[in-house]
Write a structure and sequence with these properties.
- 84% of the residues lie in helices and 0% in strands.
- The protein has 125 residues and is mainly alpha-helical.
- The protein has a domain of 41 residues.
- The longest helix is centred in the N-terminal third of the chain and has 33 residues.
Amino acid sequence: MFFEKENISYNYFSDCSSFRSHCLGAHLFVGAIGYLATLFGIPAFVLAIIIAPIATELPEKFNSIIWVRQGKDTLALGNITGAMVFQSSLIPALGIALTPWELNPLALISAVLALTSAGIVYLTL
């Protein structure tokens, strides 16, 4: 259906243009984080650790809200869980493997806060 012979060139063009748009958007997002960090005089790491998770998870939240309103709560919960697993496993692994990884004091503090928060949530269950 989607990959019929007459649609192959359209599919190829669509995939390539989507990939280029995604890369351009990511480049603009990272540049904007750096610019805002300089503008406000705060480390880019601090701004990125606050804004990036919100920006990456926001579409999933909107989809989940729509699905809960439609009575598809299992789908909504699966969407959020899958997004959280993806964001907490594959992306950090690629980032650690493909970039020079330096754990400065600010990054160490944020890691300790994240682990402490997760521990508190786990203990309250």
